[in-house]
Specification:
The structure is a single chain. With about 220 residues, the chain is α/β, with parallel strands linked by helices. About 40% of the residues lie in helices and about 15% in strands. The protein is built from eight helices and eight strands. The strands form two sheets. A six-stranded parallel beta sheet has the order 5-4-1-6-7-8. Strands 2-3 form a two-stranded antiparallel sheet. Strand 7, helix 8 and strand 8 form a beta-alpha-beta unit. Helix 1 packs across helix 3 and helix 3 runs parallel beside helix 5. It starts with a strand and ends in a 12-residue tail after the last strand.
């Protein structure tokens, strides 16, 4: 039995910049600050981390109740911004998901820094949402390293079956994805379809490094 958990941005899809545009638009709408997230690194971080950094940079306390309203406003903008001609699936994703979802004893989920509402908005236009009945998200915990236990607990509640961390596989495109798997003893697959090179991911401690998901030898993880 395996639980295979996918990151979204850079791993499953390229949103065509919809995420950052939506954060900037939400910040401008609420606080009248343009390009609020310019220069803030986002790869591998949770949405909540990114939002808190943006608020703090502009002198706002992220613990004073603004975060919930910001999330709602961000998702509203994202629903429009995801409808852009630059969005695309990463290579081999549709074929790999079809094969994995049909394998005996394999369960799919998400492990992503996106808040759940944003994650679903990003996946639906590609027809991928239904592959992932469960997951752990940026609004479950802002520390990505805390998300795997949450995903495993949700698996237990949904299927009434325990799963060990060693039987979980985390697939992502950044060293942070690798780290959040390895600290719990899960199998880490790094795929060089995001901002990090194959060489840098190979140095991250991943158990498997791919140039894109179509290279994956499923027999090594199942």
């Amino acid at each position: 039995m395996k639980l295979i958990l996918f990151d979204i941005d850079g791993t499953l899809i390229d949103s065509g910049g919809a995420g950052i545009r939506s954060m900037d638009l939400a910040f401008e709408e609420l606080f009248s600050v343009r390009d609020a997230f310019r220069g803030i690194g986002m790869a591998g971080k949770t949405d909540i981390q990114i939002m808190k950094e943006g608020l703090a940079r502009h002198g706002m306390n992220p613990e004073n109740g603004k975060l919930g309203l910001f999330c709602e406003t961000y998702v509203r903008h994202l629903q429009r911004e995801i409808e852009n001609p630059r969005r695309r699936l990463k290579p081999g994703i549709r074929e790999s998901l079809a094969a994995l979802s049909g394998a005996d004893g394999v369960f799919l989920g998400l492990l992503t820094g996106n808040i759940e509402a944003g994650a679903r908005v990003k996946l639906r236009p590609f027809g991928l949402d239904s592959y992932f009945p469960l997951g752990a998200f940026g609004d479950d915990h802002e520390d990505r390293n805390k998300l795997l236990p949450i995903a495993a607990e949700r698996f237990h509640r949904r299927y009434q079956r325990e799963i060990a961390f060693r039987d979980c596989v985390v697939i992502g495109d950044t060293p942070r994805d690798v780290e959040c798997a390895k600290i719990h003893g899960a199998f880490a697959v790094a795929v060089a379809t995001g901002p990090y090179s194959y060489e840098s991911l190979a140095a991250s401690g991943a158990d498997m490094v791919l140039r894109d998901i179509s290279e994956m030898d499923r027999s090594l993880i199942l």
